[in-house]
Specification:
Blueprint: H1 3-9, H2 37-40, E1 53-58, H3 65-77, E2 87-91, H4 99-105, E3 112-115, H5 121-132, E4 136-142, H6 149-162, E5 165-171, E6 183-189, E7 194-201, E8 207-209
Helix pairs in contact: 5-6
């Protein structure tokens, strides 16, 4: 194969349509384990896409979105090498994070940074700066100002630049809008627990994972 073409095909920013998730399970595509094996089976690389934007769509907060992320966030807050420690930034959370619950999940509170912008429109800017700085392992964003494809592209590029994981919580009302996110999922209550729908997955396929946290 032509060297230039081979180099292009190895670029993680290239979406290859119906590429099977298993074909991406190699070091260059290693995902961040979610802590939920049933979910990881459906994610290319066996976990959350690193250095990219993940969008979580939900009808209302409290559908299990934080429990979904906590195992991975705890791991990011506890690196094996202290020199690699980076912040877990929460941008404009609609609630006050509860430290005892974070500790129970194993999150290192000394690495948690909470940012409360004065204006809603500043939340997107703050997230973009945090992602591109290279000082954050993950950035969680809650913002009504994040409402178009341009915003998602800005976050995706910032995540790539800073090698950070971007997570944006969005309303189901934007379901029909296109997005530059590498992964887009929907959460909703199910019969036995919380069901997760994979709406878009770079290198993977749409899927429904019922009771993703169950056995």
């Amino acid at each position: 194969m032509n060297d230039a073409l081979e180099k292009l095909l190895q670029n993680p920013r290239l979406w290859r349509g119906q590429a099977a998730a298993g074909s991406l399970n190699k070091p260059g595509w290693q995902g961040l384990a979610s802590g939920y094996p049933k979910l990881d089976q459906h994610l290319p690389g066996g976990g959350w896409p690193q250095h990219a934007l993940t969008e979580i769509l939900l009808e209302y907060y409290g559908t299990g979105e934080l429990a979904l992320l906590m195992p991975a966030l705890a791991r990011l807050s506890q690196p094996e090498d202290d020199a690699q420690a980076r912040w877990i930034a929460w941008i404009a959370p609609p609630f006050e994070p509860y430290p005892p619950a974070l500790l129970q999940w194993g999150v290192n509170l000394s690495r948690v940074l909470i940012v409360r912008p004065r204006k809603p429109a500043e939340a997107l800017w703050a997230a973009e700066q945090a992602l591109s700085s290279g000082n954050c392992a993950a950035v969680l964003l809650w913002s009504d100002a994040f409402n178009d494809t341009t915003a998602s592209r800005r976050l995706q590029l910032a995540a790539e630049k800073g090698q950070s994981w971007a997570i944006a919580f969005r309303s189901l009302s934007v379901l029909s809008q296109p997005s530059a996110a590498a992964l887009r999922v929907q959460l909703k209550p199910g019969e036995k627990g919380t069901d997760l729908g994979i709406l878009k997955s770079r290198g993977g396929r749409p899927a429904v994972v019922q009771d993703y946290a169950g056995l």
